[in-house]
Design goal:
Structural class: alpha+beta
Distance between the termini: 38 Å
Largest sheet: 5 strands, antiparallel
Number of strands: 10
Radius of gyration: 23 Å
Order of helices and strands: HHHHEEHEHEEEEHHHEEHEH
Length: about 300
């Protein structure tokens, strides 16, 4: 029997928009042959047409929402092929329903932490399976490939969300959720501002402790090999490297970034002054990292003639 890996399941899911369990079953039935598995899904009526799934889904919507008790939040990216679909009420309902299901499943998983789940994540798989039929129905009705790409969550004493240039409430191209620990009344004013800061500054990490030490060492190596420290005394080089790493943290770590609304203070200092601490955050930019195929004129003509 073929080794059915999570990566293989993910590849088939992206091609067909079928549910995780459907993709696994298809690969098991076809001994891991992804082409045969796609055909099996079509034969079973799980996928309406393979051609839709061959199209790259890089548009769509990012949604940000929080639980009714305000202590848990998620961001969800659901992709479609064109910007036009994002304005479709049926697609927007799909995004809203998926986001609500993500809150239900992720908040109940017990992890209560900032995390990102992909095809290997149990919570992600549960959301995919729960939404599989609605996704397939929306694909069939609208006629475009759609993919639930990723979900991320954060939790704390209070959670705040922000969507930049929202197309409809809670949905747009940039979504943020930030969790803060401490007095809820104090965080009510600062939390939304920190969420807006994240959208503008795009931090990679919440705190210095989360930064991979290997990334720091690479940053030091690049700085030294750039020639900036050439000929300098050892103690001077040490100070220069410390300054470079401090700058790196200030660019990539949320707590160390200059607060956009008061650049003389870091985000961490602003929170600390109010007796607050950062519990976690999540940020998505729609379509980030997706390679969208660009057809040339000859390809377009050939498709029309075909």
């Amino acid at each position: 029997m073929a080794n059915i890996t999570a990566s293989l399941i993910q590849d088939l899911r992206e091609r067909t928009a079928a549910g995780m369990m459907d993709c696994k079953a298809a690969l098991l039935e076809t001994n891991g042959d992804i082409e045969a598995a796609a055909d099996w899904l079509r034969q079973k009526g799980i996928v309406k047409a393979a051609k839709k799934a061959d199209r790259v889904a890089a548009s769509g919507l990012v949604a940000a929402a929080k639980s009714n008790d305000g202590i848990f939040g998620v961001i969800v990216e659901l992709n479609a092929e064109t910007d036009f679909v994002a304005k479709n009420e049926m697609f927007q309902k799909l995004v809203a329903d998926t986001t609500a299901k993500a809150i239900e499943i992720y908040s109940g998983c017990g992890c209560k932490c900032e995390c990102e789940c992909n095809c290997d994540g149990e919570c992600f798989a549960k959301v995919m399976d729960a939404m599989s039929d609605e996704i397939k129905n929306t694909i069939s009705t609208i006629g475009e490939n759609m993919t639930l790409r990723r979900i991320r969550c954060a939790s704390g004493d209070a959670v705040y969300t922000y969507v930049h240039n929202a197309l409809v409430p809670g949905m747009g191209q940039i979504g943020v959720v930030v969790a803060i620990n401490g007095d809820i009344a104090a965080s009510a004013e600062i939390g939304p501002k920190v969420a807006m800061h994240i959208a503008a500054s795009k931090p990679e990490f919440a705190t210095i402790d989360q930064v991979d030490p290997n990334a720091v060492e690479r940053e030091k190596k690049v700085f030294i090999e750039s020639g900036a420290t050439a000929g300098k005394p050892e103690q001077v080089v040490e100070k220069m490297v410390e300054g470079r790493i401090k700058k790196y943290y200030g660019e990539s770590v949320l707590n160390e970034q200059p607060f956009v609304m008061d650049p003389d203070k870091t985000v961490g200092q602003v929170l600390a002054a109010a007796g607050l601490t950062l519990a976690g955050f999540a940020y998505y930019l729609l379509g980030e990292g997706i390679q969208k195929k660009e057809d040339n004129l000859a390809d377009e003509v050939a498709k029309m003639l075909g």
